[in-house]
Amino acid sequence: MRLLSLLLTLAVLTASGCVSYKELVNFDSVRMPQGKTEDIENALELRIQPRDLLRIEVESVDPLAAAPFNEAVTVGGLGQVSNQNLQLFQGYLVDQDGYIDLPLLGRIEVAGLTVESLQLLVRGKLKTYIVDPVVSVRYLNFKVTVLGEVTIPGVIPLPNSRVTILEALGMAGDLTDYANRSSVLIVREQDGERSYRRLNLQSDEIFASEYYYLKQNDVIYVEPIKARTATVSDPGQRLLSYLTPVLSVAGIVIALVTR
Q: What does the domain layout of the chain look like in residue ranges?
């Protein structure tokens, strides 16, 4: 009886640190029926900001005429450089005032423009030097930071500028079992201001949030639930979670043997 009482006490203590099914489910309150569609009204149109790194490429039927406008890097002297880091040397850094310097075209204000509008602007200026220029612009340092209760926290470089919070969490290896899905914090810096917003991944309201689509340099922090706090503050709790199944089996065996 003493052994059984001890096992029951251990089971109760372990249960206090367990994660419930409801805490593990995302979009628990999604009300959209299958087969129904809705318009996307919260998609972001990203604007170029200071400290953004842009890749600007110019093409023409005359490659020699376009060559001066394309940034090139001499690998000699850089040592062993990965392809990703090499691209960073080939971009135009937007300065603190929102300008870049292009060969022959000089200083151009780009902050506040979209990638598409910058392409049109550069193309118009290039017509003085090149016949029918083709201009492409993209971000080189588009990234977000994911911290907290995810499998692989860290800085995540993104291949394109249209990324949702769900995609970023997927790139971070998804949420852990101890993630607080009802309180995911996003920190955003834009136009010299910092904003904060908490999203509830268990609600379908997340899809209508202006923070559902991420911007460059967003920081995502996934809070832990209380059960996680208990395992961190009390290492013995983790030990109990491992010993309880073993002790339970031992208790059953002893009970059968002593009959």
A: 2-19+229-257, 21-32+142-224, 53-139
